[in-house]
Amino acid sequence: MNILITGSTGFVGKNLGLFLKSNASTDIIDLNLRFDWQKQTKAQSRSCIIHLAGKAHDLKKTSNPDEYYQVNFELTKNLYDAFLKSDAKKFIFISSVKAAADSVKGILDENINPDPQTHYGKSKLMAERYIQSQPLPKDKSYYILRPCMVHGPGNKGNLNLLYKFVKKGIPYPLAGFNNKRSFLSVENLCFVINELINNDCIESGIYNVSDDEALSTNQVVSILAKSLNVNPRLWKISPAIIKFMAKTGDVLRLPLNSEHLNKLTENYVVSNQKIKKVLNKELPLTAIEGLKITANSFNIT
Fold it and tell me: Is residue 287, in this structure, part of any structural domain at all?
């Protein structure tokens, strides 16, 4: 089986490549969208196209908004058009839960009416809707995956930063907030993608992807501390005091402001029941097992 992958040098791409290459019958073709990829798609015979490449969410808000639409929408549109004209049978697009909602009340599932507030989310949603709007030949399928926060070996995101704070012995001062967030082990994501590649009975559509359990930030800090063989330092300062400090940070432009506080303490629970139902299989890792693997990988690096 020949599989064409964009974004193969990224965090997910590297892990996915290793996962798929463990199957001797899989031949992976790296597709670089910066070069003449259209000639490559025509020249290569492939079974599936996996589109990982994209403009990531910029937490510092320094990116040009046009870049999101050019990369996340226009390139996806062009690649999907090429897929429809090619002999490939499956198109897997890695979107994001942020294409559906920036904040969640209750549990996020695929029935939500999408209302993204950022250029990142809006550009991903535009790509999703374009894919859904095109006539689909009977012998082809598309899968739009909306993963939540992905982590694993090689991850350099927020979990890595939190790990460094724990390693330095800095107490976590927001333990008074009892939030729940969904995470996604990169191994579980790779497992889902592999199942979609090899199962011809799954209907095209949008699927959320997350680990089974949602965890509190306090639980995450405890898991990171355990990987370092230290006791977690959780300070349960009154949330009212913390919120007052955050409002002060809004005025004085301090690192702790209302926006950052909300990101650290918000609830964002994602349902994975739809994808699990169509796969009819359990995910390889629990949320805690996946986070332990990620934490231990930080220890090595």
Answer: no
226 lies in some domain: no
Asked if the structure places residue 199 within a domain, the reply is yes
The tokens of 164 are what?
């460094």
Tens of pLDDT, residue by residue over 216-234, are: 999 999 999 999 999 999 9
The encoded tokens of residue 112 equal 């939500």
What range does the domain containing 72 cover?
2-151+184-210+271-280
Largest distance between two CA atoms of the chain: 62
- The pair of structure tokens assigned to 181 is 């967030």
**Backbone φ and ψ of 6, nearest 5°:** -100, 150
Residue 280 clears pLDDT 80, i.e. is over it: yes
| Torsion angles phi and psi, residue 146, rounded to 5 | -110, 85
CB 209 within 8 A of CB 275: yes
> Domain of 34: which CATH number?
3.40.50.720
- Tell me the Ramachandran region of residue 169: left when phi exceeds 0, alpha when psi lies from -120 to 50, beta otherwise: left
DSSP string, 72-86: IIIIHHHHHHHHHHS
pLDDT band at 259; cut points 50, 70, 90: confident
Q: Is residue 198 part of a domain?
A: yes
The CA-atom distances, in angstroms, between 135 and each of 26, 38, 80 are: 29, 21, 12
Query: What residues have CB less than 8 Å from 210, skipping those under 6 apart?
Result: 97, 147, 148, 182, 183, 184, 270, 271, 272
The domain total for the chain is 1
- Residue 267 DSSP SS3: coil
Distance CA 216, CA 102 (A): 18
pLDDT digits (tens, 9 = 90+) for 23-71: 656 788 887 776 555 655 554 557 899 999 999 866 556 568 899 999 9
